Amino acid sequence: MALPNDQYYIDRIIKGDTQAFAPLVDRYKNLVYTLALQMVKNTDEAEEAAQDTFIKVFRSLEKFKGESKFSTWIYRVAYNTCLDRIKKHKTAPFAVAIDDYGTRQLRATENVLDTLAEEERLRAVQECLQQLPGEDAFLLTLYYFEEQSLEEIAKVIGIKPNNVKIKLFRCRKKLGEIMRTKLEPEIISEYERGRK
């Protein structure tokens, strides 16, 4: 039996049924927490950011006009909530030099990941994502793990889809550099020798 869609619950909440918010929280809580953790890099802060996100969503449900998917709207609220927390704590972003990191090295790193077992690959990617600045990890998570389109991500962070594409490319380069230093250099070297 299929669960009712988001709009069903939203309509019930707006009519005064506050209990109808629980299924929406259940549906999105893991994702909101994961995205918050990617941005704020601290489990306690991520939990608080997730709670703040749902409080804001509940209080402003009547503002949701359905112009985008409800999930996109929640991601935007989570994104802005995390940005506010980051500004409040003024955490310094992690910087990765990408000037010398070309497309060939990026492909080599991605191909090394293909040789790892699925579970091992996911763990390696998640560990490396934690080293990225919060916004970069957030974007990559939305695009690759949540399979959001460029247009949907653009609505979440408030920029044009072409700018999202550029940001994603830069984020991938940063992630590639982190992965390159994290993964065993001899595996990458072996792969690159095999390609010559």
Model description:
This protein is mostly helical. It folds into 2 domains: 6-89, Orthogonal Bundle (Rna Polymerase Sigma Factor, Chain: A); 103-195, Up-down Bundle (Butyryl-CoA Dehydrogenase, subunit A, domain 3). The chain contains 10 helices and no strands. The protein has helices at residues 6-14, 21-40, 43-59, 70-89, 103-115, 118-129, 134-145, 150-157, 161-182, 185-195. Helix 2 (21-40) packs across helix 3, helix 4 (70-89) packs across helix 8 and helix 8 packs across helix 9 (161-182). The longest helix has 22 residues, at 161-182. The chain is elongated. It starts with 5 loop residues before the first helix and ends with a helix. Mean pLDDT is 80; it is low at 91-102.
Instruction: Assign an overall shape.
Output: elongated
Task: List the uncertain runs.
Answer: 91-102
The CATH topology annotation of the largest domain reads as Butyryl-CoA Dehydrogenase, subunit A, domain 3
Q: Which assembly state applies to the chains in this document?
A: single chain
Task: Estimate what percentage of residues fall within beta strands.
Answer: under 5%
H/E element order? HHHHHHHHHH
Number of domain units: 2
Radius of gyration, Cα only, in angstroms?
Answer: 19 Å
What is the helical fraction, as a range of percent? over 70%
Structural class: mainly alpha
CATH architecture of the largest domain: Up-down Bundle
Tell me about the largest β-sheet. Answer: none
Number of strands: 0
* Whole-number mean pLDDT: 80
In CATH's first tier, which class of the largest domain applies? Answer: Mainly Alpha
Ends apart, CA distance between termini: 54 Å
Report the total helices.
10
CATH H-level name of the largest domain... which superfamily? PhyR, sigma-like (SL) domain
